[in-house]
């Protein structure tokens, strides 16, 4: 299968630029790639040039080892001779792999058609994934065979419609209240949002106190029920991990296995997949690369940074949570947490917000699971933090789930950093830190076009 991952915010911005340049203009863009067991996925990196010399722009992209992507925007499908000339331009630039997309406005909607040039062979694109607002997945039509009117009439079927689960619900069924809520009072709209939620491939990294609650609430909301809800943790359940959803008999079990079993039993979720491993495992990295959204529920900056890099490389929505109790500078105990949502194509990733030490992160991530476990065993955790609290984590996890639904509804159109704390008179308050605090003065090494954004497997 051949597909492209094109962040929705990036596509919207690109179409605005093409509109200003005049219809039938062509944007020369950069793309990375991800090789999968069943094909190839191109990953949009950003615009190169609109107008000017296409030949020079293409040669520059190819010389840097990237994949060229030509994007055309109009009210009609481009003629076959024009498509052939674009393929010829890609070949003349020395590109062994590249792609052409035509985005066509039809009846206040858009239709995407495209092709891939892979090792000199022209093939049709099958799907376009648009991470970000709406989390849409659209069928791509062959450029040399524009869809008929009958096919366009059924283009609402471009996204796969799965049966059962959250998508097919009676007004008094299990999902009816959630359906009305996420549909803003509209049952059909809520049904569509829940279908997209069920079709997601979601990944949860870390199954400690925050992670177990995150998996449970995602499962209860049907996230990934018809796609996948994958969770990874290499650690075992200890007595201090109890107090949430895990029973005493789970002590000694792998966290991922225990959380998976309990969450599936409580929710009836059909697609929870545990991985007893961490980010040092290639299978975990591969599973994250296939995901639509990654939730990080970890207690160290190194894993958070590595996750942010993967999300930037592969165009994945990243939701990072933390919470519980912490020491202030005066060693008072403060209660609170935070939720950080990084959308591909929006300014600011979790690496920007974290401002972590990259060199230290590489050393920590190279440790084996046993080495990391021994390191944690020797730590005096009570000197670093005053403990944790499941009941404090619940509102943080709840806000993270709501943020995912805001993305699915198309309401969340920028990256956000939300901070939760007990303020005056110990009353809980949520603040938007993303508007108040700058991220970085220099371009981020993870999410900027000069950095790792959209490279996919290139350079690994």
Give the structure's gist in a few sentences.
By secondary structure, this protein is of the alpha/beta class. It contains 16 helices and 18 strands. It folds into two domains: 2-157, Cytidine Deaminase, domain 2, CATH 3.40.140; 200-436, Rossmann fold, CATH 3.40.50.
Largest sheet: 10 strands, mixed
Give me the count of strands: 18
Q: Ranges with pLDDT <50 over ≥5 residues?
A: 156-164
CATH H level of the largest domain: which superfamily?
Answer: NAD(P)-binding Rossmann-like Domain
At CATH level 3, the topology of the largest domain is: Rossmann fold
Helix content: 25-40%
CATH architecture title of the largest domain:
3-Layer(aba) Sandwich
Number of helices: 16
User: What overall geometry do the principal axes of the alpha carbons give?
Assistant: globular
Summed up, the domain count is 2
CATH C-level category of the largest domain: Alpha Beta
Structural class: alpha/beta
The overall pLDDT, averaged over residues, is: 86
Beta-strand fraction estimate: 25-35%
Distance between the termini: 22 Å
CA radius of gyration is 23 Å
């Amino acid at each position: 299968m051949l597909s492209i991952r094109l962040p929705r915010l990036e596509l919207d911005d690109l179409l605005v630029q093409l509109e200003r340049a005049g219809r039938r203009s062509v944007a020369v863009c950069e793309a990375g790639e991800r090789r999968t067991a069943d094909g190839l996925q191109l990953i949009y990196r950003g615009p190169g040039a609109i107008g000017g010399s296409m030949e020079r722009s293409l040669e520059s992209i190819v010389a840097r080892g990237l994949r060229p992507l030509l994007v055309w925007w109009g009210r009609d499908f481009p003629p076959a001779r024009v498509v052939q000339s674009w393929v010829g331009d890609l070949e003349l630039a020395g590109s062994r792999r590249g792609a052409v997309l035509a985005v066509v406005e039809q009846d206040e909607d858009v239709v995407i058609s495209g092709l891939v040039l892979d090792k000199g062979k022209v093939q049709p694109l099958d799907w376009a994934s648009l991470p970000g607002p709406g989390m849409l997945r659209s069928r791509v039509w062959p450029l040399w065979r524009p869809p008929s009117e009958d096919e366009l009439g059924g283009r609402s079927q471009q996204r796969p419609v799965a049966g059962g689960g959250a998508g097919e619900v009676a007004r008094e069924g299990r999902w009816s209240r959630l359906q009305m809520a996420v549909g803003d009072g509209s049952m059909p709209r809520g049904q569509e949002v829940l279908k997209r939620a069920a079709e997601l491939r979601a990944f949860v990294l870390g199954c400690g106190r925050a992670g177990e609650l995150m998996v449970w609430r995602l499962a209860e909301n049907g996230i990934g029920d018809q796609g996948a809800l994958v969770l990874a943790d290499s650690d075992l359940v200890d007595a201090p991990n109890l107090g949430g959803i895990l029973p005493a008999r789970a002590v000694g079990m792998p966290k991922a296995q225990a959380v998976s079993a309990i969450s599936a039993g409580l929710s009836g979720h059909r697609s929870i997949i545990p991985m007893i491993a961490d980010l040092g495992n290639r299978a975990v990295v591969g599973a994250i690369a296939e995901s639509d959204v990654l939730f990080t529920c970890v207690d160290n900056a190194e894993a958070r940074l590595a996750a942010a890099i993967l999300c930037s490389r592969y165009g994945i929505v990243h939701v990072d949570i933390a919470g519980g109790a912490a020491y202030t500078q005066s060693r008072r105990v403060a209660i609170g947490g935070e939720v950080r949502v990084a959308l591909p194509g929006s300014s600011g990733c979790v690496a920007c917000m974290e401002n972590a030490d990259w060199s230290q992160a590489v050393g920590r991530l190279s440790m084996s699971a046993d080495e990391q476990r021994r390191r944690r065993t020797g730590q005096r955790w009570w000197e670093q933090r005053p403990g944790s609290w499941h009941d404090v984590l619940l509102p943080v996890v709840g806000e993270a789930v709501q943020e995912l639904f805001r993305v699915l509804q198309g309401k969340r159109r920028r990256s956000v950093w939300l901070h939760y704390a007990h303020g005056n008179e110990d009353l809980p308050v949520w603040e938007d830190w993303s508007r108040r605090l700058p991220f970085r003065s220099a371009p981020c090494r993870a999410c900027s076009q000069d950095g790792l954004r959209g490279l996919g497997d290139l350079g690994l």
